[in-house]
Amino acid sequence: MPVRRWSKRSKRRSSAQSLVTPQDDGVHVYLFWSPNKERYLSHTAAERVTAEELCISAAEAVGITPLFHVLFALYDPMSCCWYSPNHVFHPNEGSCLILHFRMRFYFRNWHAFNDKEPDVCVGPLAAHCLAGTLTSPISSQQAKYDFVNELFPMEKLNSEEELSLFKNESLGMAMLHLMHLALQTGSTLQRVAKKTSFINCIPKSYAKHISEDKVLTKMRLRWMFERSMRTYQNNMEAKKPDVKEIICKYIYALECLAPRFGSETFAVRHLRLGGDDEHTSPDASRDGGAETVHELMVSANTGLQWREMMASEKKKSYHKNAKSNQWTPFCDFPGIIHIAISEANVCISTQDNKCMVEMSSSQEARSFISLLDGYYRLTVDAHHYLCHEVAPPRVLLSQANGLHGPIHDDFVLHKLKKEEAEEEACLVRWSVLNYHRLVLANGSMASHKLFCIQHKDSVFTLDGWQEKFSSVKELTNTLKDYILKSGTDSYTIKKCCRPRQGELSNLLVKRRGIDGSASTRTLSPNKLELCFQIKYKDLILVRSHLGFGTRTHIYSAHLQVGQVVAEQEDDLNGDKYKKIQVVLKVLEQSHEDITSAFFEMASLMSQVSHNHLVFVHGLSVNGSENIMVEEFVEFGPLDVFLCREKAKLTPRWKFIVAKQLANALNYLATKGVTHGNVCGRNVLVARRGLEQGTSPLVKLSDPGIAVNILCQEERLERIPWIAPECVYSKAPVGIGADQWSFGVTLLEICNDGHLPMSDATLPEKERFYQQKGKLLEPSSRDLAVFINKCLSYEPLERPHFCSLLRDLIDIMIKSAASRYIPQRNTSSGSLHRLSQGNFGMVTLYMYDPANDGTGELVAVKSLKQENGPLPKYWLKEIETLKFFDHTNIVKYKGCCTEMGGQVVQLIMEFLPFGSLEKYLQKQEKSTSQCLLFAQQICQGMEYLHSKRYIHRDLAARNILVKNDSLVKIADFGLSKYIPENDTYYRVSEDGDSPVFWYALECLKLNKFSFRSDVWSFGVTLYEILTRCDPSQKMNVNVLISLLERWQRLPCPADCPSEVTNIMTSILEL
In terms of domain of life, where is this protein from (predicted)? Predict the structure, then answer.
């Protein structure tokens, strides 16, 4: 943006006088601080300007670097709304607009002073702490301004004690304020206090209260403050603190005073959560028809939360409400897939849920989604946007040209070394110091070379070259025909490395204890770790041969899943065993050489679970027969269904199917899994969706034999679904192959199951790829552009699946596709019992809303009927689980009741490998794998304690295994909430207790605290490292006696000394 558009104003007459607000037409941005004492930057030219351009100019004026300017935004104090980066201002409209340049995206505990909250850092290597930027003068001035003007959500003061504490804390912060000024000016506290009264450093409401006090009261307060000031002055002279330390303490005190400091709250007219029948009606009312409103809260550490409140409470939204109106988590930022907006209506889509809200205005709606969008880029993917309506122009520019953000040289070198093995590569990133410069890094030699690219007025020029380019992509493509010279060194460019989905760098803020590593860990195939080892005698062949797969025969069968109770025998015609229909894929005996690959594929697919993936039950081996058992899907392959029903299919039907397929592939991509065989034949139709009031449901089947194992003829046969780079390569396929296949399959859906290329001969197909041919485009221009992005012959230029899913939904909205989803009755079918304990049993169910066999597997926990009335702890476990949302805590799905509410069943996610105790007893696991499990348990417990809950039953038997790299904490029946001012909980009720895992104070005094959970973790760690070898049982008296004699558990074999020391420190009295 040209500097000529701006005029700088400094209207400050003195520190004690207020600023003169600009009256000229235009946009005036207020700065809390600048090095040359300027307070306003004014844009009065006739040209339009975006909010992002204003922010960049303001950031340059106050010295904020390109890495951290994304934390700031423009705020309108009159409308109390934030502007999205792409908002366009038109100064020639004859209006004067005053905006504040403020930090909007705030991460609590960036100073790491609070050991009860997770701290944060920039980048996975924690090399650059946020504190370096957040102690800048503009950030500290904003914090002071907010405190004095009370622009933060303050808790309601309900007693004289709380009011007195607030006053004392305010005076303490006023002292820190003056200390900060003294260090900045090199003066003493007494001299600073003469120019700046402490009255001007406390909240205005408190200052007003002091002004109304009696003269003697005010004199006594000033005398006490001056006495404290002398003490602090002596401490400053002795300890010599620096400016950063003081401002860190100031902001830490502000966080303690306002627990919701840094969060934003939005009142919404209507809220509807998809998939939750209790909250599907936005017009629900309570208490005789009183109007019900909702609030949404967004914070960096907890994501998106909501609560219900009465309209009469709306004006009190910044105060603590009753316990019944506690905040309920909806999702964290990594769980968001897409955000759509229409006027004031916002729809937030996650992997398995949806939140639809109506805001009070379209401006507030854009303010809300720009907040979610910004936090997503800060915590998940720095180069992705969730909603096009608020996408920052620079992010769009970077995505179109394959540009990286201002990443540091360490990350540049790391990425270039990964790419250098194939061919000479380059990388273009934004400068970390200059907002109008890019850097081209070439990695063809051991010491990479940097070339600068200037960006001015939408034109890009390489330093030392007069040629001008309209885009960086055009510049780098041109450079491929040249040799770059730097002194005696020569450099060539063959390809440009684009950002990858969710790539780790210093652009991301790492939230320790929240951003778990398990969610980003890739799955590894292991033929020994299947969901079920199915006995061949449980498979009953009931139908003829269905057809052929790739080197497989396909049969229909019934799988015997368990014995039924007596009253159900009549429904099953007297059969004592329940059966479900399945599909058998039998590997041809002539291909026994690929048995290992067949097992690996089955293992990989058994470790993933999604509504739009065909469920793999497991493997069965019968002599020389290797059989994969998977879910039966009623209406068969999608390509056949499209041809058969093409007269009945609507564009909306096809969009829904394409979206479901993209959802499944996006899920696989987040797990690091490449399918490798996406096509219409491999997508199965589970629900037709042709009847009135219904929608289709499709599921992606297993990929079959891996592409790199197929012969050349088999790979040519798969053209055009197979990606061009896979035809001649024997290397494992990358995620780009699925992106190509999805584009072809989408074209197949548009053409009702037929593609012209599919009927061509093998030489014709091969020639088509060699000539880089183009498939016939659909009539829709938007859809044609979308498909062409997928069908790029350069794999790195194909969009990520998160981008494909977002753009596909945008096309759906543009096409005016109906978003109405009908209400459906729910039903379920029991498959078999998973486990049984002292209080109840857990059963595997198929949750089937459409009652057509297309649902998902869930685990249902219920009490034994002979245990009598429903205990309080059972209902409490349900309420507790609803409150938690963490990668390493089992996910709550809902609950259901029977017999008039006398029987309540808890519905949870299904974790196929069962308890960690049995898993370790059966599987040979390395020490590093065991320590990974222990780390994840720590992360889950850290989250649990941050919510002030203690588990009280932490043991390996209560840890569930999802796959070989992810475990989750379960069984919260004994958990307790520790109030804010308490440190322990004394148990008074009777009941069975896991004494072997209890600390001494629990056994003797029935006192439970956070530390007692730490003890239980130590015992659980011992279990894990000994692979859950059964220990000798002891009664409680013997156990207490041993503990009092300082006898401890013996050191496990092969246990690293560092871990032994940790375990010893945990198990101290």
Answer: Eukaryota
